[in-house]
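[job 4417] fold queue: 2 targets
>>> target A
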Amino acid sequence: MVQRDIEVKLLRTLVAIVDENGFARAAQTLHVTQPTVSQQMQRLESVIQAPLFQRGKRPVQLTPVGRELVAHARRVILLNSEVLSELSAIHSHQSFSLGCSVHLADGLKSKISQLALERPQLWGAVTTGLSSALADGLARGEFEAALLLGTETPRSEVLGRLRLAWFGEAPLDSGGSLPMAFDSGRSALSTLDTLAERKVAWHSVPWCSDPLSIRASVQAGLAYTALPANTPQPPLPASHAYRSARAPARTPPRPPGLLRHGP
C-alpha cells in the first residue's frame, strides 16, 4: 500500500477557505494568488481521493468528506503549532553541564543562586566528586567544564590559590604518630609530600575512602585531615585541639597553599 501524507500547508489553505467563505478571500489572507489556492485544493483532493467542495455552489459548500477533513485539519494545525512552540522553547534555553570538586562544593550555593538570577533561562546540571574522577569525565565529554582541585587537564587554567588548614582532635599513638585521613593518594588535599618533607610521623586511618567518611572520622576525633580553611562549621583546628588535649605544641606542618582549579 502506497503511503499518503497530507501537507499541513494544504490543510491550512482548506481551513482558510472555510473561515473566509471563499477562494478569493482565502488567497488574500494567505498572501497567495487565487490560482495557487485552487491548485492546492486539487492536490489535497488527489491525496484524499474524494471531492472536498460541492461544485457550482455559491458560496462554497463542503462535501461530507470535506466537513470531516476540516474538523481533523483544525486539530492537526493546532498540534503542529504546539510542537513548534515546544521545540522553540527548548532551543531558546541554553544548557551546561559542570563538574565540581567535592572540596569546592561549599561555594556552589552562592554561585548557583547568582546564576539563577542572572540567567533564569539557563538549564544546568552540576556533578560533584573527586577531581581525578571529574577530570576523567571531562576527557570523555561528560562535562562542558569542571572546577578541579590540584588536577591539571590539557585546557586547564589556574583560577587562584586555596588556603588549607589542618582539622581534627585525635590523640597520638604510642609511637607519636599522627592519625591522618586522606581520600586517596591522588587527592589534592593529601599533603603527603608536606608531611614527608617535615619528617612528620603519621599513619593512615584505613576506613577513610571518600570525603564524607573523612569528615566523619575527623569529627569523631579519630583523625586529622587537611581541608579548605573556609570549610563551614569545621571541627576544631589541629593547633587548638593539640593544646586542649595537652598534646605536644607541635602541629602538622602547614599544607601547601597553591592548588589548581581548572576547566
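>>> target B
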Amino acid sequence: MLDPATWGLTQALIAFGLCAAVIAAAGTRITRVVDQLADRTGIGEAAAGAVLLGAATSLGGSVLSVTAAWNNHPELAVSNALGGIAVQTFFLAVADMVYRRANLEHAAASVPNLMQNGLLICLLAVIMLAPMLPDVTVLGVHPVTPVLFGFYIYGIYLVRLTSESPMWRPFQTRETREDVPDDTTAMPSMARLWGEFLTLMAILGVAGWTLEPSATTIAKETGLGLTAVGVLLTAISTSIPELVTSVAAVRRGALTLAVGGIIGGNAFDTLFTAASDIAYRKGSIYHAMSEDSRFWVALTLLMSGILVMGLIRREREGIGRIGAESMAILVLYIAGVLLMFY
C-alpha cells in the first residue's frame, strides 16, 4: 500500500481522496492566517491574497505538476496547472453566488485586483504563444520559462506599486467593501502566524506530492487519459482550498482577499508550467502540450477577460444577485468540461 507502483484503482482512489481532504482542511485554515498576516504586516488583503494565499493554496498543485513532469507525464503536469486556473475562476463565480448583498465584482473592485488579472492574462498569452515558437532548449529549459518567472515577479511589483500609490480609484458606493485592517491586538504574534503559515504550506506540499502517483494510476486504470484526469480531478482537488477560502473570506467580509486570492493564485499557477518545464527532461514541455491543454489556455483567457470586464463594469445586481460576467464564467467552464467528452 505504501509503494505507489503497486497501487490498483481502489488504493489510488483512497489515496487521492485522503490527499484532497488534507488539502481542503489545510487550505481552509491558512485563509484566516493570511488574513491576519495581511493586517499584521500592513501589506493589505490584495497583495496578501496574490502572494501569500495564492502561493500557499496553490502549493499542492505546483508540487503535483512538477512531480508529474519529472516522471515524464507532461500532459498531467500542464493540464493540472491550466485546469486549476480555469476551475478557480469558476470558483470565483460560485463565491459571487454566496455574497448576497451585491455582485461580488462590484463590491470587491480594486486597482490591485485589476492589475493581477491583467498580469494573469499576459502570462496565459505567453504560455499560449510558447508552442508556436521554435522547439529549442538551453540545458533542457525553453527560453519562455525564465520569461514567465521574470514577468511574474515584475507583475507582482506593479501590483504592490498600484496598491500603495494608485493613479485612480473605483467609484465608492454603499456596496463597495474596502480593505480595512482588523484590530491586530487580539491576533496571535507575528512569529506564531508565520510558523503556522509555513507548517500548513508544508502539509499542502506533501499532499500534492502524494496526489501525482494516485492521479497517474487513476488515468491508467480508468482509461480517462492524463489530460482529463488533470483538468477534472487533480485540478479540482488541488483547487478546493481556493473554493473554501474564497467562500469563507466572502462570508467574513474580506471581499478583496477573496477575489485577490483567486486571481493571485491563478497568476501564480501559471508558474506551474514554467517549473514543470525545468523538471521535464525530454525537451520543451510547451511543445508536449496536447490540443486539449491549448484549448483550456484559450478558454481561461476568455474567462479572465470577462472577469476584468466585470470588475470594470461593476454591475450592482445581476440575475439573482449574480453578475452577468459571473454567469458567463459559469456557463463557459461547464461547456468546456462537456466538450472534453465530445
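[job 4417] complete. Note on B: The longest helix spans residues 9-41.
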